[in-house]
Structure formats: structure tokens, C-alpha cells
Write a structure and sequence with these properties.
The chain is α+β, with helices and mostly antiparallel strands and 179 residues long. It is 54% helix and 16% strand. The protein is built from eight helices and four strands. It holds the Pfam family HNOB.
């Protein structure tokens, strides 16, 4: 997992819960990196799981809810860092439908060894999108948060339903209907 995911996560934890909480969750975790991350480094996903679990335990906030908040923060980071990417789109459905064939292609240019989930578009209309998320990492709520922020970015709203195709959350169908 790319380091930017870790550095931004810890920045969010510090902003929302304080530097002491950052120290607490790092100290409670058994991290090969010792909690020292660079944005361009690559780290084990198990480290993110530990940090999330300890943050959840210390704050009494469910991991899925933490991932939603983190995704909103991360979208804003992407918006500031790569405004040209978002500017190529005029519609949230079009943008979400292009994750696999455009956005992930651009991400791989910056981070060639990034392990990204796949998004298969099953059905698309002007006001709806059905796609399947597949990943060895069950972070579909992170994807949901990014989708919510995508609609917000375009001053639009949508109803987004999740349908787990695999119980462990590694394969999830997103059913998106613009309001």
C-alpha cells in the first residue's frame, strides 16, 4: 500500500483526534515500519489494518465509519494535488465509470507499483451506475466515501447502495442512482 495512504491517514487522525492519538495507535500496533512513513514508500496493508483497528478501539467508532471519513479527507487531498484530473470531468457518473480505464491509469503513472482495486462497470445510464469493486483488501467503505465526495464535488447527490457479493467485503456491488 502506498505511503501517501498512511501519511494522509495519520494527518487526519492528528487533525481529528490529536497528536496523542497518533502516538497511541502507533504504539499499540506492531508495525514493521515503526510508524515511519513517506508518501512515496510502500508498506504492508496489515499496518493500515492495525492502525484502523486501534483507532476504532480508542474512539469507539466503527472501522467502516472511519474509512468513510478518511475517504472524504483523501478526496480533498486528491482535489488539491491533482485538480487537472477532476477538471476533465463534468459529471459524477462519468467520472466514477472511468475509474478503471482513466483514473487508475493516471494513478499508476505516479505510483507504478500501486495495488489498486478493480471496478467493473455492469450498467451505466445518465443517472445510474452499477459497478463491482474487487480487492484483496476490504476497504469498500473507503470507495463509498470517495463516491460520496465525487457527487458533492459536482454539486449533486446520489443514493449509493452496497451489496456484498463476498461476505468478507473483497467483492462488492455499488448501485448508484443520482437523486
Amino acid at each position: 500500500m502506498k505511503g501517501i495512504v498512511f501519511t494522509e491517514f495519520l494527518d487526519l487522525v492528528e487533525a481529528k483526534f490529536g497528536l496523542e492519538m497518533v502516538d497511541t495507535i502507533i504504539s499499540q500496533s506492531e508495525l514493521e515500519s515503526e510508524g515511519i512513513y513517506t508518501a512515496v514508500g510502500t508498506y504492508k496493508f496489515s499496518e493500515m489494518l492495525q492502525l484502523l483497528q486501534h483507532l476504532s478501539t480508542n474512539t469507539n467508532i466503527e472501522i467502516d465509519d472511519l474509512l468513510l471519513v478518511y475517504a472524504e479527507h483523501f478526496f480533498d487531498v486528491l482535489k488539491q494535488s491533482y485538480p487537472g484530473l477532476l477538471a476533465t470531468y463534468k459529471d459524477p457518473i462519468d467520472m466514477l465509470a472511468s475509474i478503471e480505464n482513466h483514473i487508475h491509469v493516471e494513478v499508476r503513472k505516479i505510483y507504478p507499483d500501486a495495488e489498486l482495486p478493480t471496478f467493473e462497470v455492469l450498467d451505466k445510464t445518465d443517472n445510474s451506475l452499477v459497478m463491482v469493486y474487487k480487492s484483496s483488501r476490504a476497504m469498500h467503505h473507503f470507495g463509498l466515501g470517495l463516491m460520496n465526495k465525487t457527487f458533492e464535488h459536482f454539486d449533486s447527490t446520489a443514493t449509493i447502495e452496497l451489496e456484498k457479493m463476498k461476505e468478507d467485503g473483497t467483492e462488492v456491488k455499488f448501485i448508484i442512482n443520482r437523486n
